[in-house]
Amino acid sequence: MLVLVELLSVLKKINEILENRRRETLDIRKNIDAVLSLPIVWFDLNFLIIKRASEYQFNVSGVDYIHVASMELNSIREIVSADEELDRVDLIKRIDPISLLK
Predict the structure, then answer these.
(1) What is the DSSP letter of 89?
(2) Quick one: pLDDT at residue 17?
(3) DSSP, residue by residue, 20-80
(4) Does the predicted TM-score (pTM) go above 0.85?
(5) For 20-39, what is the mean pLDDT?
(6) Which class for 6: exposed (0-12), middle (13-18), buried (19 or more C-beta within 10 A)?
(7) DSSP letter at 87?
(8) Radius of gyration of the chain (CA)
(9) Residue-range domain boundaries for the chain
(10) Which residues on adjacent β-strands are paired with residue 80?
(11) What is the rounded CA–CA span in Å between residue 10 and residue 80?
(12) Is 94 helix (H, G, I), strand (E, B) or coil?
């Protein structure tokens, strides 16, 4: 759920920039639907994740703590994200989505 919240936030920010530049905005619903159509394994946000996240001392936001705890508890070490804050977390490797365009 938090990934979708983050995606919605990013899409809204992109649309604000596009509006300011008087350009066509993105269809947020179509973008969310595209993500929901992917073969994603959805995990419930449970107390184990919150407990683990509360033990961190990284210099990132609380929402990022939840992302990192979810990754750690599911043995995921890499994430595709534009969020440079995640570079401060030594448990994971962030892959900038722009690098995938090359």
Answers:
(1) -
(2) 92
(3) HTT-PPP-HHHHHHHHHTS--------HHHHHHHTT---SS-HHHHHHHHHHHHTT--EEE
(4) no
(5) 90
(6) middle
(7) G
(8) 15
(9) 1-41, 43-102
(10) 95
(11) 14
(12) strand
Residue 4 CA: distances (Å) to CA of 11, 27, 36, 98, 102? 10, 15, 9, 20, 26
> What whole-number distance in Å separates Cα of residue 53 and Cα of residue 5?
18
The stretch 22-28 carries a mean pLDDT of: 92
Sign of CA dihedral 83, 87, 90, 94: positive
Place of tokens 């604000």: 16
pLDDT band at 98 (very low <50, low <70, confident <90, very high): confident
Q: What is the pairing mode between strands 93-95 and 78-80?
A: parallel
- Judged on CB neighbours under 10 Å (0-12, 13-18, 19+), 83 is middle
